Amino acid sequence: MISHPPRIEVSASSDAASKKLAARIAAAIRHRETEGGHYVLGLATGSTPIPLYRELIRLHREEGLSFRNVIGFNLDEYLGIPADDPNSFRTFMFEQLFDHIDLPVPNIHIPDGTIETGEIESYCAGYEAAIAAAGGIDLQILGIGRSGHIGFNEPPSPADSRTRRVTLDPVTREDAAATFGGLGNVPVEAITMGVGTILEAREIAMMAWGAGKAAIVAKALRETPSPALPASLLQNHGNVTIILDDAAATYLDR
Ligand code: GLP
Fold this sequence. Notes:
Number of domains: 1
Strand order of the largest sheet: 1-10-9-6-2-3-5
Number of helices: 7
Bound molecules: 2-amino-2-deoxy-6-O-phosphono-alpha-D-glucopyranose
CATH topology: Rossmann fold
Largest sheet: 7 strands, parallel
Structural class: alpha/beta
CATH architecture: 3-Layer(aba) Sandwich
């Protein structure tokens, strides 16, 4: 198989970029439906995918896009906060997407952040098994953290890491402090799909918006792939699109 370096798509705004990606996702979902199959979508949280989810909701409401043949797997969840906590990724996903589309609830998979310590390892193995049973992920949506994380794969995260319990980077916790109303309220740990789990997706779309992400995006694309910068490991995948607005592309040769 020929391996391609990441494709870079730069748009004038996050809305314009998200609309393009949403249109591609809609076409892929519809195509799969005509074949009578499921489309398996890897989903992300954070502010980055919000315009994408807004456009997918619009396509559902105004253009008849159905998600009944979609199976969703979310990347990650904070450990040790209740599922209905306003800051859980479960709450985020329902508010930002699932409450507004017809994705069947049994098709939704989000790591359970309330799992007992002794059960985490087998729970994570079960999450991997569920992805495999669904036929693997067709398209994984990603953002990037300022620490260089994808999902919650903080540095260092090896290319073959799997779904597991992780400790959050101080930079990541700082970035979440405002939402949680103070650094002390930000969880210390999370469950995340591994880098290896992510790299098994048949296609990956990593989005980044704004000047605050420009430096880490450039590093992730330029530096030799290494666990010290987990997003750089995407360079080895072969079917990745990096989707940026102008500000996030500042340090790239265009
Ligand atoms: C989050 C998530 C990541 C996300 C990143 C960036 O907390 N675990 O999947 O990509 O941090 O967040 P944002 O999109 O808000 O910049």
